[in-house]
């Protein structure tokens, strides 16, 4: 993977950090001068992944950490990795089923993975029950202004 | 953030800011408290001032939709910005509630602007209307 730029950040799995996490990723992605729509999609996808970790990973115990890595890859692709060391997901297929939620009492819609899938180009979820979950996403960002990089390099 | 407007038949919740998991709980509690006070036939969630929404907003809509079903009320979603419309569409929440986009702006009061150049076409019409109504005013007096 030919990484052109990279950001790493770790923060506690507290709901106050949801806004910070998605804003941070979008600020990093802004160097690509993406369209408003692509940036909004990215913001939403990141929010879903981080919220999943905050809501589920450290349930019933002191919130642990969430590690976010953002990479700028060639051809305007943004790669995002969001990892926690929480409870893990026993059945990933079930967790990814639209409208399924393990926390319906908290009015989780069960659409987090559906949104991540819809708003990015590629989503992978790996999890070890009892050890944590890692979500990676890739999204090619379209330029907001025409041919901004046409003659560079 | 949420501001409520209570009318006899309608409760409108003007949502604003970022509607994520962190903020959804307080919004939900504020709306539900008001709903249970008056059980309005119509509850409106107005999204005009919402700058961001993820699936936590869908959870909010689904939950309110269930609450409305309990007593036979109707849920309406007003003025979702384009990005929120997209989240609504992929989640199928547009089938849970009536979605409306009002043309007029409800909150900012626009100062009536007069065109700098008088519209010539309008002038004769206005005069005609005024002339036409003059006799009625005279009769009324």
Summarize the structure.
The complex is a heterodimer of chains A (153) and B (141). Chain A has 153 residues and is α+β, with helices and mostly antiparallel strands. Chain A has a single domain, classed as 2-Layer Sandwich (Heat Shock Protein 90), CATH 3.30.565.10.
CATH topology (level 3) name of chain B = Transcription Regulator spoIIAA
In CATH, the topology of chain A is named Heat Shock Protein 90
The main β sheet of chain B shows up as: 5 strands, mixed
Q: What quaternary form is this?
A: heterodimer
Name the CATH architecture of chain A: 2-Layer Sandwich
Record field, number of beta strands of chain B:
5
Q: Which protein chains are joined by the largest interface, and how many residues does each one contribute?
A: A-B, 24 and 22 residues
Mean pLDDT of chain B: 81
What is the overall silhouette of chain B? globular
Tell me the distance between the termini of chain A. 20 Å
Total of domains of chain A: 1
Query: What is the helical fraction of chain A, as a range of percent?
Result: 25-40%
Question: What is the average of the pLDDT values of chain A?
Answer: 93
Q: What would CATH call the homologous superfamily of chain B?
A: STAS domain
Number of domains of chain B: 1
Q: How are helices and strands ordered from N to C of chain A? A: EHHEEHHEE
Count of helical stretches of chain A: 4
| Separation of the first and last Cα atoms of chain B | 53 Å
Could you characterize the architecture of this molecule?
The complex is a heterodimer of chains A (153) and B (141). Chain A has 153 residues and is α+β, with helices and mostly antiparallel strands. Chain A has a single domain, classed as Heat Shock Protein 90 (2-Layer Sandwich), CATH 3.30.565. Chain A has a 5-stranded antiparallel beta sheet with strand order 1-2-3-5-4, with helices on one face. The two termini of chain A are 20 Å apart. Chain B has a 5-stranded mixed beta sheet. In chain B, helix 1 runs parallel beside helix 2. Chain B has a single domain, classed as 2-Layer Sandwich (Transcription Regulator spoIIAA). In chain B, helix 3 links the parallel strand 4 and strand 5. Chain B is an alpha/beta fold and 141 residues long. Chain B is 45% helix and 26% strand. Chain B is globular, with a radius of gyration of 21 Å. Classes of the chains: A alpha+beta (153), B alpha/beta (141). The interface between A and B is medium-sized, with 24 and 22 residues.
């Amino acid at each position: 993977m030919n990484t052109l730029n990279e950001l790493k950040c770790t923060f506690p799995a507290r709901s106050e950090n949801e806004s910070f996490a998605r804003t941070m990723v979008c600020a990093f992605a802004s160097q690509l001068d993406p369209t408003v729509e692509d940036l909004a999609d990215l913001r939403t996808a990141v929010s879903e992944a981080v919220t999943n970790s905050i809501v589920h990973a450290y349930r019933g115990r002191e919130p642990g950490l969430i590690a976010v890595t953002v990479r700028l890859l060639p051809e305007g692709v943004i790669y995002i990795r969001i990892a926690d060391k929480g409870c893990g997901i026993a059945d990933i297929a079930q967790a990814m089923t639209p409208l399924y939620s393990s926390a319906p009492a908290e009015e989780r819609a069960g659409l987090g993975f559906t949104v991540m899938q819809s708003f990015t180009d590629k989503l992978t979820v790996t999890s070890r029950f009892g050890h944590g979950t890692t979500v990676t996403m890739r999204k090619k960002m379209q330029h907001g202004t025409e041919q901004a990089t046409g003659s560079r390099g | 953030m949420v501001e409520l407007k209570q009318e006899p038949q309608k409760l409108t919740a003007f949502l604003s800011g970022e509607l994520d998991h962190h903020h959804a709980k307080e919004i939900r509690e504020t709306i539900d408290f008001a709903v249970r006070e008056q059980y309005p036939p119509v509850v409106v969630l107005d999204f005009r001032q919402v700058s961001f929404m993820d699936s936590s907003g869908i959870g909010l809509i689904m939950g309110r939709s269930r609450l409305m079903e309990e007593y036979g009320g109707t849920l309406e979603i007003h003025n979702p910005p384009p990005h929120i419309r997209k989240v609504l569409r992929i989640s199928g929440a547009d089938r849970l509630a009536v979605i409306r986009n009002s043309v007029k702006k409800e909150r900012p009061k626009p100062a009536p602007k007069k065109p700098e150049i008088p519209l010539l076409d309008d002038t004769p019409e206005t005069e005609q209307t005024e002339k036409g109504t003059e006799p009625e005013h005279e009769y009324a007096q």
